[in-house]
Amino acid sequence: MGSSFKERASKNLLSCDNTGGDAHFRRTENDFSNMYARDLLPAKNGEEPTMQFLLEVVEILTTYVRKTFDRSTKVLDFHHPHQLLEGMEGFNLELSDQPESLEQILVDCRDTLKYGVRTGHPRFFNQLSTGLDIVGLAGEWLTSTANTNMFTYEIAPVFVLMEQLTLKKMREMVGWPNGEGDGIFSPGGAISNMYSVMIARYKYFPDVKTKGMSAAPRLVLFTSEHSHYSIKKACAALGFGTENLILLSTDERGRVIPADLEAKVIEAKQKGYVPMFVNATAGTTVYGAFDPINEIADICEKYNMWLHVDGAWGGGLLMSRKHRHKLNGVERANSVTWNPHKMMGVPLQCSAVLVKERGLLQGCNSMCAGYLFQPDKQYDTSYDTGDKAIQCGRHVDIFKFWLMWKAKGTVGFEQHIDKCLDLSGYLYDKIKNREGYELVSEGEPQHTNVCFWYIPPGLRGLPDGQERQERLHKVAPKIKAMMMESGTTMVGYQPQGDKVNFFRMVISNHAATRSDIDFLIEEIERLGLDL
Amino acid sequence: MGSSFKERASKNLLSCDNTGGDAHFRRTENDFSNMYARDLLPAKNGEEPTMQFLLEVVEILTTYVRKTFDRSTKVLDFHHPHQLLEGMEGFNLELSDQPESLEQILVDCRDTLKYGVRTGHPRFFNQLSTGLDIVGLAGEWLTSTANTNMFTYEIAPVFVLMEQLTLKKMREMVGWPNGEGDGIFSPGGAISNMYSVMIARYKYFPDVKTKGMSAAPRLVLFTSEHSHYSIKKACAALGFGTENLILLSTDERGRVIPADLEAKVIEAKQKGYVPMFVNATAGTTVYGAFDPINEIADICEKYNMWLHVDGAWGGGLLMSRKHRHKLNGVERANSVTWNPHKMMGVPLQCSAVLVKERGLLQGCNSMCAGYLFQPDKQYDTSYDTGDKAIQCGRHVDIFKFWLMWKAKGTVGFEQHIDKCLDLSGYLYDKIKNREGYELVSEGEPQHTNVCFWYIPPGLRGLPDGQERQERLHKVAPKIKAMMMESGTTMVGYQPQGDKVNFFRMVISNHAATRSDIDFLIEEIERLGLDL
């Protein structure tokens, strides 16, 4: 009871084989130079080397974690592919026939982190998934250690139940009565969206499963011109054809115009197509726009179309009493994609597709493989989830999310989301009247996305026209390249439609503060001054 | 230099903030009861609690690792779903609005492992993926800590290059000149097989991508009646229809009969179908059979069909000079699935699809999303892999594999595979003439699969006939159920075709020894004695 934490920790961690006395532990780092993977468990006497090796790895990782949150550390140490391929000092990516020592393996671990990108750094704003949640990280470490597979209750009893309970909770937040319905965690939002298209097709044309697309009429699907490209990928993969995905026009804020949907539905019907599926986006990738779900749902009901809500990015707002109104109508959807690995800060990968009608996932995907899903097991095999999936083996993506939810509570996610949206409001207020900035669209941010052009002093006097546009188009890539070279921060940019390259700032990192927003703006101005 | 490892480890791990003296570290476990997730980084003064919490998690995990390799530990502590759902003492799966203390989170971590299944235990034989490789585990821990995404070089420079080099090495082992070609790591063998079907379709009928399946003639695909169900799932998902997947007959060892393929190709053509794709399995799920690739390749060439080799399970044998002949002809394949997470003991998930012709993956899947794959980046964007994938975000599955390859060398994988196949030979020799055993097929095992019936004494005198078959059908499930209840070992069973339930023993665990095989047989006989 009175022993120090240090003593206790090391005693427990290294108590594996202390029968030989402390001599066993008198090792310096150099000792790993004579140790190889074959000396680790299950090798005879492998317990002690195993513990020492893992502890050394943990030291590398915890050092990395500490530095990740340290603003004096760079976000990245950029090198071009050819530089890394040629080999940095002591870091050779080539694989060889003979084993390397564990010392070299530890060096490789350090170098892998050194030349990587700190996605948890408070100034990493480059993607929708940022941040390093400590409880989530612990959850991932445990998941790796358990090293099992979601397909049967038999080998993942706890994880299968956690998935079931968590999916139910998510469906409750969507607003489906008693959280009824179905769902599955998939390897990312693109696959979740693909599921939604597959399930919709199965609902309306179940014979496609056995007979192929010739069993269905000529089908068309609808999605916003601003939606994620995964809907298009799904149309290509599943045999619909990308030309049969009809893009919907949006308003100046990037939201689908419902009247445009209805007009295009009518037009398609007149041409002999059968409108089957509409994707409404809750939080578009670039603008963070929320399509008007209720109006879209009205049209879906009227024309008997499947309504999917892609809330990969915006789904997290359902956890916030302040912001969930942006998804009003989501309870009318037939299916919903929601990626906790984006706005909710769960480590990658963690994406769910939720389905209102029970049985469709199973019906759509089941192949009843007798060697995996034996009906004569001693437990209730309805808990075996494998036959619902398009995958066979399925990674355990649930545990980290479940553990974070336990640790933060629903209120913790709500605070996180409200804070990130507050920060984007701060950025918006900061730049909306600031010299040298132009917002891509007017009005308060809908999500944490703030899209803007930075106009370097040298361009400010130019009249609007082709020359200015061409020069402005090059500004964001140049600033971004300098940012990466200096390693100070990272933010994304892209063109959109007829708009030249602009910055897309997004905030999902729980470590970011107003000072980091200030830093970003200072950095853009510092680097862009002479462009 | 002279300090003990214990001291050094704890000093380094906890050196984060020792300015306040040792008082900071005088904590007992109970202290976590007043700590919450909000006290961890990025919280102010969060560094020390973070390190303490992570170290405590590591202690739980390393204890689990040690016990996993300890044969006096059970493989599992079985509970029915309703038991776990009702809540075990102190372990409540339900999620709540308010946060739990970190103490509870640590208890949850312990309980999650306690009620799970030790897939790394030397006596866990239940799946094709078993074992807990320590270097692979370290690799997963690092991957979780890096928490990034494979879609662009920009945010995963090192991992993207590792993937590229490793895929090239795998293609070399397949036998493609200079390792040329393409490939990608995907979330499991089912998705890798799905890729192969998509790419084949794109190669022959590229218009399907834009126009849908109506742009192709009536297509048929071929695979063994013993092949993995993922080929069928792909046919359902991609719009071919499962009825257009033609199952090929096999010989008594479970290998495709080439003449049957040719006959069915001719028959399909006569009916007006276009034969497009043949899947040859290298290591079937149940029998471990290797289809004769060369003879199948001859037919594919003759009729201009895509040849895919599903080596999810058997691909690992390419690493063994002794056993790789079983895949002779694999170099003639157009695509190959190979799951290092199966026979090579890499932690889940790690699956690759390799493609002989460069450009097809990109052509098939690219949608050129400007917001992710900006052409005006400062580096060579051909390293951005995202547009090759059907996913958008993609988990980093490469690092653990790369690190294991470094640590073991190619020779280390070879030794692992040779050892597992030796063990299956040992099992085969042990039971082939043993009283109470019948092998499902004659002859030395092709892979590590050994399929057999155990005939309890009470059934041995029965004449072959319906009664004996019906009773024998119930033997394996009963023994398996008792095994799980007692937690001593786990092995799979299933029926196949007209064969009643039999055990399928597979060995991929590097911790398994002959004594574990002996134990399994003793256990089957002990539990099955009175059936």
Overview of this protein structure:
Chains A, B: The modification N6-(pyridoxal phosphate)lysine is found at residue 342. Chains A, B: Its EC number is 4.1.1.15. Chains A, B: One of its GO terms (molecular function) is pyridoxal phosphate binding. Chains A, B: It catalyses: L-glutamate + H(+) = 4-aminobutanoate + CO2. Two copies of one chain form a homodimer. With 531 residues, chain A is α/β, with parallel strands linked by helices. Chain A folds into two domains: 69-76 and 117-147 and 398-531, Aspartate Aminotransferase, domain 1 (Alpha-Beta Complex), CATH 3.90.1150.170; 149-395, 3-Layer(aba) Sandwich (Aspartate Aminotransferase, domain 2), CATH 3.40.640.10. Chain A has helices at 5-13, 47-68, 81-86, 102-114, 134-146, 157-174, 189-204, 208-211, 230-237, 258-270, 293-303, 360-365, 398-432, 457-460, 466-486, 514-528, and strands at residues 124-125, 182-186, 219-224, 245-248, 274-281, 306-311, 335-338, 351-355, 437-439, 450-454, 490-496, 499-505. In chain A, α10 (258-270) packs parallel to α11 and α15 crosses α16 (514-528). Mean pLDDT of chain A is 93; it is low at 1-28.
